[in-house]
Write a structure and sequence with these properties.
Largest sheet: 2 strands, antiparallel
Structural class: alpha+beta
Shape: elongated
Strand content: 35-45%
Distance between the termini: 22 Å
Number of helices: 1
Order of helices and strands: HEE
Radius of gyration: 11 Å
Number of strands: 2
Length: 40
Amino acid sequence: MELEEHYGQLLGVKSPWKIASVDPKMQDQRVDIVIEYTDD
């Protein structure tokens, strides 16, 4: 499972939205997530 798919399921992100990127920053104890609107 891709990291984006995992966080999408965890956060309940559904179409037309999608997780574009996930950037875990363990040293800062945070995760940066970019969510995009797709017009498919």
